[in-house]
Amino acid sequence: MNYLIKLKTMALISSILGITLLTGCSSNTNLVKEEGISIERVNSSSAIITRAYLKMVGETLVLRGELTRRFSGHDLLAGHLHIELINNDNKVFKEANIRYKRKLFKSQISLFYLKMPGDVSGVKSLRVTHHTKSHNTDTSNSPWQDVNQSK
């Protein structure tokens, strides 16, 4: 009898762990209000965005933050961050893809930094998403791109 109870308990724990691992990208709606703009962090299966905040540097508003590797290891954390600006109509109107840099050589923490585009008075919120695949992050001019509103 005790054997059946242990077996059922192990099956339940295994299924819960399996479901958790299969979900992969979990939307972590840690909404934080900074400068009147809410910040949503969307984690991936390999990294957690532990901090994201806005800061005035001189006359420029800057998005800063850090992400941490979910599992131990000292190799580079693959991927990029996708930043979306959302207006008062809940539509994405600007987006940017940026890279991040490790804090120290063998650190599990990586830092990111991005200047906000000019006037942000129409921005209701911004979404920071970690993607595990590499992406074109050419920032020779401005990383910000306008989004087609017909989406």
Features of the shown structure:
151 residues; mainly beta; Immunoglobulin-like; 4-stranded antiparallel beta sheet; elongated
Just give the CATH class: Mainly Beta
CATH architecture: Sandwich
Question: What is the share of helical residues?
Answer: 10-25%
> Terminal Cα separation, in Å?
58 Å
- Structural class designation: mainly beta
Number of helices: 1
How many structurally independent domains?
Answer: 1
Indicate the multimeric state: single chain
Overall residue-averaged pLDDT value: 81
- Largest sheet, if any? 6 strands, mixed
Q: Which geometry do the CA atoms define?
A: elongated
Kindly report the spatial arrangement of strands forming the biggest sheet: 1-2-9-5-6-10
Low-confidence stretches: 21-29
User: How much of the residues is beta strand, in percent?
Assistant: over 45%
Rounded radius of gyration (Å) = 19 Å
Say how many strands there are.
10
List the secondary-structure elements in sequence, H or E. HEEEEEEEEEE
